[in-house]
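I am still learning, so can you show me any protein sequence you like together with the matching structure tokens, please?
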Amino acid sequence: MKRLPSIDIVRGIVMIIMALDHVRDLMHIDSITQSPTDLATTTPLLFFTRWITHLCAPTFVFLAGTSVYLSLKNKNNLQETRQHLLKRGLFLLLLEFTVFNFGLFFDIGFHTLLFEVIATIGFGFIVLSFLLKVRSQILGSIGLVIIFCHNLLPLIPFSENSVLKTILSPLFGPVVFPFSGRVFIMGYPPIPWLGIMLIGLAAGKFFEMAEERRKKIFIKIGFSAIALFAIIRFINIYGDPALWAVQKNALFTFLSFMNVTKYPPSLLFGLITLGIMLLLLAFADQFNNGIKRVTSVYGKAPLFYFIVHFYVVHILTLIMLLIQGFNWSQFEFATGTFGRPKDLESGVALWAIYLIWIFVVILLYKPCEWFGNYKANNKYWWLRYI
């Protein structure tokens, strides 16, 4: 299948941004004890550092759905596409609970198992493998219903011990399951994210259009989504479990207005992030040639980058701890704190986070360029899964 430059460019942009969030998560001095979106403790720059990375997961999931549509059109073989989606979905689930979870925590005992974005994409692929005969317009409509209506679920008066509530909760919202001295965390509830994947699949038809027409459609939908976000958010009744409120000054009131919920992705979260993504897709082909060339390198090797960057950032975190005077016996890997001692101060200031982030992105440029070229020039079966 011929690659679409705008998809690689936008995917590359969010891959670069994503590394900032993970460097902050593992290495910022306050990341273990404070939320960057807690208006009582955050700063505007710290809030923005976290907020801008909200663009990443919706873009990954949306474009994963788009890739399914384009792959099916290119192969024109429903059975082959179904088998590939099913195998790749299972592969991503396995990868999440082995390679990714270890890269995140460096815990050989796997005391914390996280169901995050790679697993939710894998889940979505498995579901889509059984829906390929359904028209893309219908799947897109189902996706919109999920995105607009899933925030109603908490309003349903289930009884406390309801079996239905027990079944639905991990599918629609974050849930923690302790077991055998370990904990399973449903960080990315799969149904709301499936809604985003479904509309991404339905949007695949736009990429078959002429560039200028596609651009006009993406601009129209993108600005409409952002405008709808502003209207619904201003009304302040529905669309996000966290209502905005007047704060100590105008800037923090704005931060409250923009402080939407990612876990699970609320309607307002989806509108603002996907609206911005569509505008990026609309204008990607007009970016500076240097920007397009650099971002495409990361966009052509997304899973490779995702795996490697986690290990690089975590190794840098351990080096940081050693430089700050901690010894190996003080490292805590089983507590979910990435090796950082829970009761001792560690980490670096936000300005250093930005420098480390830039270092990580630059460091991974050549490896991603090599892998992208290797994948393009070789047809080994296993490369289809990475």
